[in-house]
User: Fold this.
Amino acid sequence: MDEKQRVWNSVLGEIELNISKPQFNTWIKNTYPISMDESEIVICVPSAFTRDWLENKFNLTILNSIQKITGSVKKVRYVVQNNPKQSSKSIKSVINLKDQELQAQKESITESNNTSNNSQAETNTFTRPKSTGTSLLKDTYTFENFIVGSSNELAHAAAQSVANEPGTRYNPLFIYGGVGLGKTHLIQAIANKLVKNNKNILYVTSDVFISDLMNSLKNGKMEDFKARHRAVDLLIIDDIQFIGGKEATQYEVFNTFNELYAHNKQIVFTSDRPPSAIKTLNDRLKSRFEGGMIVDVAIPEFETRVAILKSKCIQKHFNLDDEIIYVIAERIKSNVRELEGALNKIIARVQLLNTKVTPELVDKLIEGGQIHSQRIVNTDTILNTVAEHFHIKKEDILSKSRKKDIAVPRQIAMYLIREELKLTFPNIGESLGGKDHSTVMHAWNKIKKDLVSNYTLEQDITIIKNKLYNEENPVNS
Ligand code: ADP
Ligand code: MG
Assistant:
């Protein structure tokens, strides 16, 4: 046996002590050293997954073990051997391995349910209707209805290219940019077009993806979940920034991604910021995103805003003078959704009162230059949203009931009011039916602490926050 093989065997020995046999067989067994000099050893691995896994999980173990024997080698380089048979096998193995990990996760969730005694509330969390493929698509979100200007032409071109030749050139396609700038419109345009071509598509927002995943884990339906997500020609995950920090979800996105990618299926993501700026996104996923096409949508310039308004008027069969359109486009600059909101407000006013639209009326309707479509979050919206999420009544939260399925949502509401609105503890106590400030403080502390280890709780809070700030959600309007 040569020296490099001896070194690598010792590494394998160390790793074997640390992981289960199936894991070892999946990841490690088919690796071997190709070369070694004083400073570097080069290892051949069967797939990029193995490389990532070794780098991410075992970097230290491997380096320590090598140093012990050679004293000099400081670097390990992995070379992925391109063997299609092998790599499809290793994708299978990834899935199997994932099953084990998810099983472990499921057990830990069940465990935390038992200890928190909150099974009622937590079960209810996941009874929301699931997205089925195309049900979330708006048929007005088409390429024909999308106005192209310099702020979005690259994103538009990439989206069109993906719609014409899915799974080929721009995979994954990652579109990012601020709120209301047309990301969802563009990706749904891709979906709408491909649906027409009888492609199998799945469009989900990341909170739907998360709750679907949790639901499937809890009910032992992971096979079903995987089948649904992996049998598609096009998978779109909208607002992927919300999966930052959620390890199990990222892991599943990663696996789904790899599986689809390996079969030349198209994947599209949107986010409010580029992958590099999603703080808690793990590096593997980041590098997957960065391996594709990343484009942004920016704030549209005046001409584009005018063109958008004209196009919306045509869609709504409403005639507005150019003069008026210019006034609106001058006043609202940074968000197409607000632009459309302003137009809707003007149309509604005109139709209701049968008045003529004047620049003065427009000015009055767009007070201070802004139509706030961002939802205003206050104590009431938080209470309503939490109550809705847990399928209880707002009055329950205000009550003195100590039942777990009410007490826990109440604590979550207290926590959110503190975090989102920065109210004082006595204030919060007051607005929750006269609770003592120490009760509120205790709730806040408890949720804050539990969030670190209770994955289900974290998901609940993410979903509630999403609902809170999602203006299309009618909870409190
Ligand atoms: P985002 O997902 O970036 O927050 P959306 O795609 O939901 O934004 O866009 C908000 C609204 O603005 C939608 O009604 C969409 O149709 C409209 N919109 C945005 N950009 C354009 C555009 N370039 N042309 C036509 N409509 C647009
Ligand atoms: Mg969107």
Q: What stands out?
A: The pocket of adenosine-5'-diphosphate (ligand 1) is lined by residues 145-147, 152, 177, 179-185, 308, 336-337, 340 (CB under 6 Å). Confidence is low (pLDDT under 50) at residues 83-132, 369-374, 471-477. Residues 84-116 form the longest helix (33 residues). Strands lie at 32-36, 40-45, 75-80, 173-176, 201-205, 234-238, 266-271, 293-296.
